[in-house]
């Protein structure tokens, strides 16, 4: 029997697979281990017992309440904005595009300071609201405003991209058949982009729910008024670790569910295409 000859190509391929496997495992473990450590830090009994803590319940409901309102505002205002922005050219459109993306790279604390400087009691606009007896900063409304500011780009970018990719011929055909602009958007444009819009809305919800920096700077950290779940985690890790860990695990569960929902929506859209 003649021994098999050494094949450099097979050797290099094996090394490539080995290196790829090590790299994938290293990145996956780096991202997964902190989450696993957080989950196994608490027993199930302790977790479910702490869920009844008034601090946890208050932060949970306030977060869900403000996030749902923020998402509704983003969808109602952002959808027509993204549509007209993608369909028409106008002076300064590049600047508008940049401003849409700016909150994505702007440190959240800076966003909070900017909102405070504008809408605070002595802010550029806030002083006039204050004269009318309207206070925006350090209120529940401030939480919603901060969430909208930092989370809206996720929906606006997605919606703008979807409307740009949609062939205008579909809308032109509907108008030729006598449909109004509103009816065309309702019956043609939105149904054809619904999957992507829902995906963007889900991501917006997750980002708003996890907002911390802008909220604490502009809305403060008042229990029952402005203390959302991320802020309650911050306080809990200093005063009541169990509460902090419980809310952290809740946020992980919600975030994981959001990402799974986005993946399922994307898979369904790919199967349709």
Report on the structure:
With 273 residues, the protein is mostly helical. The protein has 2 domains: 1-41; 53-272, MetI-like (MetI-like fold), CATH 1.10.3720. The chain is 80% helix and 0% strand. The protein has 12 helices and no strands. The chain has helices spanning 8-40, 44-50, 54-87, 93-105, 108-119, 126-131, 140-165, 168-176, 181-209, 213-218, 229-239, 241-272. Helix 2 (44-50) crosses helix 12 (241-272), helix 5 (108-119) packs across helix 7 and helix 8 runs antiparallel to helix 9. 30% of the residues are buried. The mean pLDDT is 90.
Output the structural class: mainly alpha
Give the number of helices. 12
Radius of gyration, in angstroms, nearest whole number: 24 Å
Mean pLDDT: 90
Helix and strand pattern: HHHHHHHHHHHH
Task: Give the CATH H-level superfamily of the largest domain.
Answer: MetI-like
What's the CATH architecture of the largest domain?
Orthogonal Bundle
Percent strand equals under 5%
